[in-house]
Amino acid sequence: MIAYNHTSLDNLLINEEASVALNNELISKEEADAIKNVYPVNLYTPNLFIRIGLFLLTVVIVLMGFGLFWLLTKIESEKGIGTLVLIVSLMLYTALEFLIREKKHYRSGIDDALLWLSIAFMSIAAALLFPYISFLARSVLIFILTFYILLRFGNILISGLVYLSFLAIVFYAVIRLGDVAKIIMPFLLMAISFFVYWLMKKNKHNSRVKYYKTSCTFVEILALVTLYAAGNYFVVREVSNSMFELGLKEGESIPGGWFFWITTILLPIAYIFRGIQKKDVVILRTGLVLVAAIVCTIRYYHHIAPLEVAITIGGIIMIIIAYAITKYLTTPRHGFTHAEPNDPALAGWLQVESLVVTQTFHQTTPVETVDQTKFGGGSGGGGGATGGF
């Protein structure tokens, strides 16, 4: 399903693991170079600065070309503009497929620009051609479009859009239940977020999704954030007040507010302890970042100090927690230490790298062959006869 050449992607994964092994001094530079020679990557991927430049250049060229084409066609109706935008989006997608298949572009900046431009133009076309569809229908369209793009190109940010559009589908579908939705919505979103987190964590190392491993990790982080957001007092109160028309005045709390205050404060702390317990860097770092959300939420409803002071206090708390965890893990505990390798999953690939190195440097010693049909010379005599055999 993925658009890029599978062999090149497999070789790219092997080269990335070889680079990680080299950085951790598990193999020598000569061995890493030999691996790259044996497993070449036939993809065009420039450095970051060239990629950014090509991205911006492509965006400018496409937008200027579209503007010129629009002026030449002199289309003014909303439906006509929508049709024109849809045609351009299909042309951009076709160009993207051609660039990947024929020119072997892989995260070159040009393919990134064509990908996002095609999505943007298609979304604008849908909004112009179908202006009166519901938010639920729009969420479904975005989910279908982004899910296909994710399967086809494995873009990390697109995976986030797939997940968020799925949550939007759930939200706008359940909101139709009326008063029941006001009660179950936060708990439903928390349950879905937890399930998605568990699903990504369980399957991201599966070989069947090896091209989407980074996307799975990104969705895993987003699921942890949405799990916290769905139980955060500020988010629940303000969303409920605006969308469910609760009409809460300043100082009034939502029903069951005590529960959401508990989750607001305890969830990041639970993330941190769970990350230490399970040696999970993703949940640990997410918990550390969300400590700032605790401080900001408390500060919003309880004016203990000015905003800049509250943010400073939150930063200090995060530094103290990070320092305490670092000191705690200075001595390795159950195989977990603050001196982590470049790739947390490196240990699982050491055997693969060893096999790669073994295969790379495996040479067969030449065996000297002897021609068994060539006989040496000889002579024989007797009875006056001489000759050679």
From TrEMBL:
Annotated keywords: Membrane, Transmembrane, Transmembrane helix
Presence of the UniProt keyword Nucleotide-binding in the record: no
The keyword Amino-acid biosynthesis appears for this protein: no
Transmembrane intervals: 48-72, 84-101, 113-137, 149-174, 180-199, 211-236, 256-273, 282-301, 307-325
Protein name: DUF2157 domain-containing protein
Species of the source: Niastella caeni
